[in-house]
Amino acid sequence: MQPKTLALIDDDAEYSEFLTQFLQEQGIAVSRFDDSNALLAAPEAFGFDFYLVDLMLPGVNGVELIKILRRRTDAGIVVVSGRLGPEVFREVITAGADMYLVKPVQFEQVSLAIAAVQRRVAKPATADAAWKLDRAAGELVVPDGTRIQLSEADRQLLECFAQAGGEPVTREALLNKLGREVPEGESDDGLSATIYRLRRRIERATPTLVPLQSKSRVGYVFRAPLQVI
């Protein structure tokens, strides 16, 4: 089993080019980033199905990048790096990576590692992992029991995601739900900031992974069961 989309974050241009070609031949849509900050600045930064991460990167270092990714996504993360040592392995796995491969490594081994991790992370969520939107209380109920007070904008957004049933919701639909005009050009009239504030409110309240992710060139998706009560 292979992911549909993958972000490759590595500043070795030649290695990245050939690995990208190899993975694309297997039907994986690969996006290359030679700088961790470039990934984090991309609209789809947290919407990839899988991440291959080097540790020695311009911008945010690899370990910190893994920590950021793990706060925003449950996608597979495999480290492919030349750094050695048990302390490096411990640091990487503790940060949230699923597997650690040491360069030089054959592309076939990278592919096998991706498939092995993808089999685990692609398992469907269980019924008891449902999130709940309590309309009367104006609260989001996390699967661990935490209740998070919502603003009116938060509630409107979550109702959109609940109605979508796990499917992506376009930016236009979200803006319409918020009663905002759909802008022309690149601006999204503050939607990204609204989504960011909602994510941060949830992250501060619970260690549970926030399933709210961006969907490249589409909008956003809530990748967990969400019920309105």
UniProtKB/TrEMBL annotation:
PROSITE patterns listed in its UniProt record: OMPR_PHOB (PS51755), RESPONSE_REGULATORY (PS50110)
Keywords annotated in UniProt: DNA-binding, Phosphoprotein, Transcription, Transcription regulation, Two-component regulatory system
Gene3D superfamilies registered for this protein in UniProt: 3.40.50.2300, Winged helix-like DNA-binding domain superfamily/Winged helix DNA-binding domain (1.10.10.10)
Taxonomic superkingdom: Bacteria
OmpR/PhoB-type domain span: 122-224
PANTHER family per record: DNA-BINDING DUAL TRANSCRIPTIONAL REGULATOR OMPR (PTHR48111:SF4), REGULATOR OF RPOS (PTHR48111)
Name listed for the protein in its UniProt record: DNA-binding response OmpR family regulator
Species for this entry: Pelomonas aquatica
